[in-house]
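Worked problem 6 (solution included).
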Amino acid sequence: MLGVLVNALAIFAGGMIGLLLKKGIPQSMEKTVLAALGLCTLVIGIKGAFEGENTLVMILSLGIGSIIGSLLDIDGAMNRLGAAVERKLQKDGASGGIAEGFVNGTLLFCVGAMAVMGSLQAGLLGSYETLFAKSLLDMFAAMMLAVSLGVGVGLSAISVLLYEGVIALLAGTLDPLLTPTAIHEITCSGSVMVMAIGVNLVTGTKIKIANLLPGIILAPVLSWLFSLLPI
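Solution. The predicted structure is:
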């Protein structure tokens, strides 16, 4: 669990440093920083989207996942949770947008092969090299993201701790299920969501990304089902 803890702490530290940097950035410059960050996020998402091996898995996982997410109103729940946390932090001068930063940070730091493979290596082999490398990358990403989206980015460390922690603790059970193909499909579907983050940052739209989250779970399941088909 050492690697998981280091990764979560790195994200939290990066988020807090980003908040300090935000105070020194003029408001006129903030829009330019936001656009630059959005474009970089788009590139990251596009690159990861090509990891998938079956386009139908991506389409179905995101399509069905969005229906499930909308019915459960995950985005609304996230916003209500963010509002509750924000009310508690108001006395400390925390800015708004906690839910947005939390959701975007969670997606950005949990999606990808490094999060899954690093956690499996930690749980199965006690090897933390991948998670340590990811921690360094995530810390700088959290710094930049927090400049635009605030304290919620640092709080996404909680999601990373739970996500990677569960994979590490259940590594022996999950290893046969999280095949290379399944990991590729998780990365692909998740990267499309990362692309949506970039679109939101660049254009100011409000795609309800949290409602797409069930697609992350559906991607490996659908990948396994497709592998059973005689084609």
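Discussion: The chain is about 80% helix and 0% strand.
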